[in-house]
Amino acid sequence: RKLDAKAVTLDGSVIHRSGLITGGVGNRGQRGKAQTWEAVAVDNLRKARDRLAEELQTIARERRKLAKEEAVTTRLTGLQTKHRISREALDAIGRKLQGLATERKHIEAKITECRPAVAQTTAELEQAKDVREQANARIYVIAQPIFASFCQRLGIPSLEAFEKLLLPATEAAEERRLQFRTQLSRLDSQLSFEQQQLDEATSKLDKLVKAQQSTAASLESLRAELSREQAEMAGFVAQIEGLRRELAALTTKYGDATEDVHAARHTLEQGQKDLDAMNKDLRARATEMDRALAEKAAVLRKCKIEDIPLPLLRGSLQALPLEAGVGAGSGSQLAESYLSQLSLGDTQSSSMSIDGADDIAPDYSTLPQTDRTGVPGTVEQKYIADVARLTAEIDALNPNPHARERLESARARLHEIEVEHNAARQEARESKSTFQAVRKRRHDVFMRCYNHLATAIDHAYKALTQSPLFPLGGTAYLALEDPESPYLAGVKYHAMPPLKRFRDMDQLSGGEKTVAALALLFSLQTFRPAPFFVLDEVDAALDLANVAKLANFLRENARSYEDEDVEADQADEVADEAMTSHYSLRQSARIKRNAPEEASTGGSASQFIVISLKQALFERAQSLVGIYRDQAQNSSQVLTLDLDQFAS
User: Fold this and answer.
1) Helix residue ranges per DSSP H, 147-158
2) pLDDT at 4 (0 to 100)
3) Long-range contacts of range 489-493, CB-CB < 8 Å, 24 or more positions apart?
4) Predicted model pTM
């Protein structure tokens, strides 16, 4: 690694950035050899550095070219998307123009129909004008003799000339009169507006004066209240100071009391620990006492059974019962009795005994002095050995008459155990064989489905992502987390859209996750075909290009309407049940009777009922079902539209 720094060694040598070594306390000859790097090694390192720098520059240039290509590809994809959107908008405009052309033709037809009526009306209007002119001429002829003297007095040749002379002056006077009235109305309106503004200003001034007076009064009251509050605050401050002093004193007392409590608690905890230790030791001693009493009772009972004479100081073996009166839990009960008595401060011995063994006291005076004063363990081992030896001699002299019966019963019991053991082993082998068969069948069924999906999911994903620019589409595949027991672990699903690097599924965008999920759904359809699908706004996160791809895929994989009429009625009932949203894309309406055969052969044609709000999707449907609200009936109504009749 190249470090741009100087270094100093322990002997005082300085290694410079250029590789030169100076200083140090070693031998001059050795120091001279160690002061510089070998020239060949330095040249090789420099050549390697230059070569790596050239390779780095080449890689940087290639990376820039690749970045430019990716930018150009991204831009091209965006332009293609814009072009597709523009084409769709152009198609929509074309459809709109076709509608407008149809409407224009209809209007032209209406105009053609109305032209004869217009011509006839025009002719009638001309005739009416001629009749009016003739009537006016007759009126002037009749009125001429009547107004002859009037016209002569005014020097006017005829009444018609008088009207032509008088009409402009009259119209001018009327116009002036109208202007005067308009100006007068405007002035009246302005006067009323100014008067209204004056009244409002006066009222506002009165309100402001009253508000000022009320504000001054409230200010005086607030000042007085402020004085009272300041006086009360001074008293509160004095009280607070006194309370603070009391709090300081109480805090000091509380600290002292807390220390006393901690000391007492520590003492209590120490005492509790000592008490627990004493209780533990007491339980151990009580257990040991219980064990000793039980052993004493067993020895005394054995002596009674075998008629062994035992010297006693107190009690009799005849009063000792042959059956044990205290069971397996007697030891713990006796220990608890001792603990309870000691915890209550009772110094008397426990009245609890084991089968009356406490009432019997053996006489140890006949034993040798060494046995009475020796180590208990050694003495006990000695007597146990003697008892074993004597028992063996007795058994040799007096054989057991019930040995044969015990042997027969033991053999019978052994035979029963062997039969049960063989039956259990056979049942275990059968259960293991059944389990292995079920496990193998489960593995085969799972792997058959997995292998089919692992192949089909890539085809489905490619069909949903391929385009003219990327004809191969994306890549999708499945991977098992545990190939040995795949049904006990998960299945990883990876999808790589076109021109995208590998990423986890949770790092994909919403639209990419939607396409991957649809590919998995349609690949499952190829393994176990369903009669119909109900897809609820699966295109919400998709853009127009992917919506168009999804519509084409659904159209290609949907059944046609050209099936039996009975099956069509069945599918119509299913479609009626599924009409629960604004739009429904019913791609096909047939449920074939040979659906099991399709499942075996891998057929995947189905009926698709899609709820969508994207025009690019539902315009590719065979029929539309819409739900709207009827305001008159205050209920929902259904509209249906068969789009096949509009297909070109």
Assistant:
1) 148-154
2) 66
3) 491/450, 493/457, 493/520
4) 0.35
